[in-house]
């Protein structure tokens, strides 16, 4: 963590923000990962995307803290992946042992994993911050 | 496979941790906590300059002018890549058997040339002008959403890398991933059946560029509606902003549709859906969806250049734009009509003749607002005091080329003519008159006209004029030869053309192909001069001292962007001469 007294880039310069580049990179990696079916790229891309969205919303003052956004993005992705899986894949085939088998299941698991990680990060950080305060 | 996944996971983890570490280094997350009374947490921050130094400035900027320059640089690089591809195509076709490329390489380059020029040069060069100049023209401090503006730009470099990915990956993956060979229209079933993963990468790149264009469009609409200065109302809004507003509305309706169609195609390719399969929606569904985007895309690309010409041409004619109101109305009319003509790309698909007739009628109707504009440009110049500066020459070249490109388009809009000329070089000649002869020329006009504003220097006038004449001659030679090739029945997209002389007049076809290639060489020389002129003048050109380098005040036509430029020049002068600080000049120790 940076020293609290040290001003960050966006505090110092009114026309600079570190976030847009990473929002774009996160979106790119997510798309490649999910559509081409590269599990690790999908998971890390989505986490980078969700994290940067949380960061940029907080920096620009639309959100007070980044953690609820992270939790929200994570929850939405998890629910979406679960809903799509239940809708499109026979219930019997939805099993962790089948990951890597069907093209759809593997991708949805990647989305769900990214969602769960973000949700977990968001809630843990939120809790830590509240108990620290 | 498992080992590959582990390596990839490690790589991604390192990347993510690296980004997090970088962010904590340069950014103070704790300072985001809003304080009572607003402001930043570190209220006593001392700002020495507006922007950070070096590469960090360009990677983190949310300033509309910087983003405009980034868009410009990006578009020029894409123009060079697309241009070299075009040149290779022309060299290949010097002889009927093909001179330098294999058929596969030719098809890859042909596909990539189209997509590069339309999506990576055309749309971004317009965004470059709009980002830099719309806020200045309407008196706004910045775009409505500066951060979204930056995101919209930063999705473009990865989009370009994805679109070109096959070219980089083919040598290292032993041709497992090759460049796409679908042509820029990506017609099904061809595009579904090519199993090459390079096609998926290209589709993703296109999708990303569409996401960027849509974000940009939302931003322009919001900016023009809400960020105008108090004394800029709808009646005196400049013509470039009007065309950008219309274009952004078109993007808003067209690009999300392209995005959806691309996702459907990706799913057909990877997830066994049947959107475009015979047993599903059918291959023709792709053509309908693609052209419902694709035809408005033509106007997305041409309306802002028309706006540039409408803005610049009067400045060197010494007269206000003739029939300003009607130029605006015709812009809006083209915007609306552009969504009702898409099936004229599909006349020969065997669609219902009654539908065909209605699409023909609307396509012909677009000629009316287009002609309104053309006559208004000509009338603006009529009896004017013409000054043939480089930007003006490019504007006149635009009008001239637009007339040829437009009239050939009217012919193609007629069903019986189209059935003869469809899929021939006539079509290629027609749309290149518009995309190179008109859109490209307007972009050059804009670059030269505003060169003093965004560089503070003047370009070399003789080189500028050489660039114009070489471009004008090259364009007309290359693309007029293509119109003739079309009449001779030469089909488009062919890598070779060893016809039986009894079917087609091979000697004449070869001659016109060679003429087109000579034109391409002239164009190439012209563009090399352009790049040299821009780079050298930017670095070493004479500094502009006067806020009115084009002497526009004399005719009462000095727009806001040059007034802003004048203020910048004065501010710079104060900065250079500290003694001027005494009368309340620039104080470096101001807060943000």
TrEMBL record, chain A:
Keyword Membrane listed: yes
Transmembrane regions: 32-57, 69-89, 109-128
Keywords on record: Membrane, Transmembrane, Transmembrane helix
Matches recorded under Pfam families: DUF7541 (PF24396)
Protein's name according to its UniProt entry: Cox cluster protein
TrEMBL record, chain B:
Bilayer topology term: Multi-pass membrane protein
EC number(s) on file: 7.1.1.9
GO biological process per UniProt: aerobic respiration; electron transport coupled proton transport; respiratory electron transport chain
Spans annotated as Disordered: 572-592
Principal location class: membrane
Taxonomy, superkingdom: Archaea
InterPro entries according to UniProt: Cyt_c_oxase-like_su1_dom, Cyt_c_oxase-like_su1_sf, Cyt_C_Oxase_1, Cyt_c_Oxase_su1_BS, Cyt_c_oxidase_su1_bac
GO cellular component, one term: membrane
All copies of domain Cytochrome oxidase subunit I profile, residue ranges: 58-551
Transmembrane segments: 6-24, 67-89, 109-138, 150-170, 201-225, 245-267, 298-314, 326-347, 359-379, 391-413, 433-454, 466-488, 515-535
Protein family per UniProt: Belongs to the heme-copper respiratory oxidase family.
Name listed for the protein in its UniProt record: cytochrome-c oxidase
Lineage: Archaea, Methanobacteriati, Methanobacteriota, Stenosarchaea group, Halobacteria
